[in-house]
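Bench notes, afternoon.
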Amino acid sequence: MNKRILTVSLLIIIVLSLFTFTGCENSNSPLLGDVTIIGPDGEKLLDSEIYVTKNNATAADAVIMACSEMKFAYTYENGMFDNFDGLASTMEDGWLFYTDYELSETGAGEYLLEDGFIIEFRYVNYDESFNLE
């Protein structure tokens, strides 16, 4: 009888351990994606494939990591990127945030990453981008 209780207890411990380690592994799995910074003439100022390991990582985390790794200058204040490589946003032109090649409906600091993410910042004319002309 003691042998049976020991065997059942051991099985329960193994099953619980598997669930525990599986949960940890998934939450810390690295996410692979691309970060691209595109200048006013369509030239790629930065194009980086990057692994992000932070839990609940955002697009801002990935951009900051890519810029830091490439020693690429940026300004990030109040949840906004407004300067890359010395090119600052103005009233007419500036940096817009895109995910999967579409203009994002959220800011980079709010956009949670998934594996295979594609992040772009494009320097654009606001009137042209929003068809205001």
